[in-house]
Give the backbone structure.
Amino acid sequence: QASFVFARAELRANAYNATLQGGYFNQQTLAMHPRRVIPEVEIGYQYRGDVWGFYASIIRRGSEIKELSNTKAAQNFAKIQLIYALQ
């Protein structure tokens, strides 16, 4: 059995964001520009027993749009996972 609290920090590199920039060969002027490096932080708790497990965390991901600050456009969400291991 194991039970622990964890924290994770990550930087994602984004070369091309089709949801913001459209098709790859698109020649139109963009109103929004993608941020090339997006930060992400996760803090959570995990319990793992012999058969059952539980995982819960809160995640904050930075803005993917360069014109919007992380204060206004960051994504905050929770993640819950139940684990059942077959013997």
The longest strand covers residues 2-13. The beta strands are 2-13, 37-48, 52-61, 75-84. The CA atoms of residues 10 and 35 lie 15 Å apart.
